[in-house]
Amino acid sequence: MRIDVISIFPEYFAPLDVSLIGKARERGILDVHLHQLRDWAHDVHRTVDDTPYGGGPGMVMKPGPWGEAIDDVLAADPRSRPRIIVPTPSGVPFTQRLAMEYAAEPWLLFTPARYEGIDSRVMAEYGSRLRVDEVSIGDYVLAGGEAAVLVMVEAVGRLLPGVLGNARSAVDDSFAPGAMENLLEGPVYTKPPEWRGREIPEVLLSGHHGRIARWRRDEALRRTAKNRPELLAELDPESMDKHDRLLLEELGFPVDRENMAH
């Protein structure tokens, strides 16, 4: 996969040289290109922002440098076209499902903004001929979109074949599509079996795969009910068994039995 990032702070992306993403780059799985937006500003001060039309606080990033930068990135491979991702608090939520969708793309172009954002004509221009997604990593505002790009690149990069040592890790993630979809992952443990007087759950030492699977699902339901109760409403009733329904009732989330498979 090729990833391009245009930013006024390309040095912000030094973390992409370390850990799983760094190793993926070394092995050629991930090809990351960083671009300094100011290289396409032509005045002596390399200005990339100006005051907003209509008044208001803050500054808006100018369309000229962004247009030239994107054009030059697109020219790097005229036979292909990237999917452009614009980090913004007003975008669609970034989810594990969307990360999986991006992981199937051959080329992603991230355009993290600063100030009050990029002149809206830029994305209207490229959205007329390319796939342009405005994406939010949460209901809060950052100083710029670079941190959001780091989040998305790591979420996408770890899904690429050969990046994780154990491919099952991505399948068992919280929010990964499958039997545990929309459930948070439960607690995890490793050696030693006792630490500071705290023992791991006995079931994990039983070797009984069925009981362990049941315990893990129960703990996932409990954690989801505690931390993200709104996700329980999105569970498919057809995927729940009698044990699931009884546990959810115990946790204060009764399920409509008329719509449940028995």
From TrEMBL:
Sample GO molecular function, one term: tRNA (guanine(37)-N1)-methyltransferase activity
Organism name: Planomonospora sphaerica
NCBIfam families in alphabetical order: PRK00026.1 (NF000648), trmD (TIGR00088)
Role this protein plays: Specifically methylates guanosine-37 in various tRNAs.
Documented EC number(s): 2.1.1.228
Family: Belongs to the RNA methyltransferase TrmD family.
UniProt-annotated binding residues for S-adenosyl-L-methionine: 137-142
Highest taxon of source: Bacteria
Name under which the protein is recorded: tRNA (guanine-N(1)-)-methyltransferase
SUPFAM superfamilies from the UniProt entry: alpha/beta knot
Alphabetically ordered keywords of this record: Cytoplasm, Methyltransferase, S-adenosyl-L-methionine, Transferase, tRNA processing
HAMAP family: TrmD (MF_00605)
Location(s) in or outside the cell: Cytoplasm
Catalytic activity: guanosine(37) in tRNA + S-adenosyl-L-methionine = N(1)-methylguanosine(37) in tRNA + S-adenosyl-L-homocysteine + H(+)
Keyword Manganese: no
Subunit record text: Homodimer.
InterPro entries in the cross-refs: Alpha/beta_knot_MTases (IPR029028), tRNA_m1G_MeTrfase_C_sf (IPR023148), tRNA_m1G_MeTrfase_TrmD (IPR002649), tRNA_m1G_MTases_N (IPR029026), tRNA_MeTrfase_TRMD/TRM10 (IPR016009)
Record-annotated tRNA methyltransferase TRMD/TRM10-type domain positions: 1-233
Swiss-Prot/TrEMBL GO biological process terms: tRNA N1-guanine methylation
